[in-house]
Design brief:
By secondary structure, the chain is mainly alpha-helical. It has a single domain, classed as Alpha/alpha barrel (Glycosyltransferase), CATH 1.50.10.10. It contains 17 helices and nine strands. The strands form four sheets. A three-stranded antiparallel sheet has the order 3-4-7. A two-stranded antiparallel ribbon has the order 1-2. It has a two-stranded antiparallel sheet with strand order 5-6. A hairpin with a 6-residue loop joins strand 8 and strand 9. It is globular, with a radius of gyration of 20 Å. The two termini are 23 Å apart.
Length: 430
């Protein structure tokens, strides 16, 4: 296992705190300057987790700003455009959500889709660290968190598992899990556009133009339907049940239930959601690859992809029938775990976004879940690999699982956050 000197750990702790402050825009945190200049949903929740290691008030403010952008129907958008930045595409003008019926008046400009519902999980952790300081603030957030989960269950969980209406909704934008479903999207009529991401990052580390054409087609499709959840669910060619959303929501519901108990609120509805998600997760088990997998709800086909999301069942709270043997095989396939796609797959690309690289935030959820399930050696491997990558390569967005090459954006908020909350030898796990 990786061994780090106390001096190096202190140095990295200080750098992680510096990055969070660097990316702080006053009430919300950007993932990194330039490449991602706005507030992203699950990035922001992870940022709160990182801030809680040294500034509990700022941690609560992050979650409060995130949830203030919640739509009237309960959805929390995946991007909130607080300050205009013409260098980003697609911006608020492309999403066209200002008149969406579900949004309501007075909300900040935003995208029309959501992201993994990790906010309640970090609200519970931050509250648990200092219940006295957080009692009033979490009580004010609680109804919003409940509404967010209720929206997911009504708008995305028709199969029991949680579906995505756009690859960006999963947070794993170009994962091979979506290839079959994305092939059903014919990007005719896409308005001309200029990508900005490849001006900040080497194109070989980003989704392809073919991917982007389909992403923008799906944005235009949603906009044409006024971001009506029912119409999109009924008419879109892209609808995929996703292990990331299913297991993060399952865990968030468990944590929301604990918050309900702490606040003296009834948790009956929440327990019903957990049971429904547990049943839905069974539909994502792929016996051919011995792990959880994405399912195209239009064709019924499983993707056949082993991803880092395949190992989130432990984080979700499941214990029986989990893919330990498959995880061990993935451990053996690359020096750094957990890759976002199986290195043995012909679709594996070590530097291209979600088609192979290691992501610290996914490692944190996998590692915590393993530890909670009593799989101590496996949990230690994931944590040690993450610490080694950050120590040797810095706070990058993601890393090549074979040689650790840092990729994507640098000085990255959520990589710094999971260092402070989990991967650092000095972390006090919340």
């Amino acid at each position: 296992m990786f061994d780090m000197t106390p001096e190096r750990a202190i140095e990295l702790d200080a750098e992680a705190r510096r990055i969070l402050r660097l990316n702080d825009r006053g009430g919300y945190t950007v993932p990194t300057a330039g490449l991602y200049p706005y507030q992203w949903n699950w990035d922001s929740a992870f940022a709160a987790y990182g801030f809680a290691a040294f500034d509990i008030d700022r941690a609560w403010t992050e979650l409060e700003t995130l949830m203030a952008g919640q739509w009237e129907n309960g959805m929390v958008p995946h991007i909130q455009f607080h300050v205009a930045d013409p260098g980003y595409f697609p911006g608020a003008d492309v999403w066209g959500t200002e008149d969406a019926p579900g949004k309501g008046a007075g909300r900040v400009a935003s995208s029309g889709i959501s992201q993994p519902a990790v906010a309640a999980s970090f609200a519970w952790r931050i509250y648990r660290k200092d219940p006295g300081a957080g009692a009033a603030r979490v009580r004010a957030l609680f109804p919003r968190l409940v509404a967010f989960h209720r929206w997911f269950m009504a708008a995305r969980a028709e199969s029991g598992a949680v579906a995505i209406s756009h690859p960006w909704e999963a947070g794993r934008d170009n994962a091979p899990d979506w290839d079959e479903a994305m092939a059903g999207v014919v990007p005719e009529g896409v308005a001309p556009y200029t990508r900005r991401d490849t001006g900040h990052v080497d194109p070989k580390m980003r989704p392809t133009k073919e991917d982007y054409d389909r992403y923008i087609w799906l944005v235009q499709f949603g906009r044409e339907r006024g971001w009506d959840d029912a119409a999109i669910a009924a008419e879109s060619p892209f609808r995929v049940a996703d292990p990331t959303l299913t297991f993060t929501l399952m865990r968030a519901c468990r944590d929301l239930g604990l918050l309900a108990e702490a606040l003296g609120e009834d948790r009956g509805e929440i327990d019903g959601w957990i049971a429904r998600l547990e049943a839905g997760a069974e539909t994502l088990w792929n016996p051919e690859i011995a792990c959880y997998d994405a399912r195209n709800l239009r064709t019924g086909q499983l993707s056949g992809c082993v991803s880092n999301a395949s190992f989130l069942g432990w984080w979700g709270g499941l214990r029986d029938g989990q893919p330990v043997d498959t995880l061990h095989r993935i451990f053996d396939a690359a020096p750094y775990s957990v890759p976002s796609h199986d290195p043995a797959s012909p679709k594996f690309e070590g530097l291209r976004y979600w088609r192979g690289p290691v992501w610290g935030i996914m490692n944190m959820m996998v590692g915590v879940g393993l530890a909670e399930a009593g799989l101590i050696e496996e949990a230690a491997r994931v944590r040690a690999d993450t610490a080694r990558l950050i120590s040797e390569r810095g706070f990058a967005e993601y890393f090549d699982p074979h040689d650790g090459t840092p990729a994507g954006g640098g000085t990255f908020t959520w990589t710094a956050a999971i260092w402070l909350g989990w991967a650092s030898p000095n972390a006090e796990e919340l």
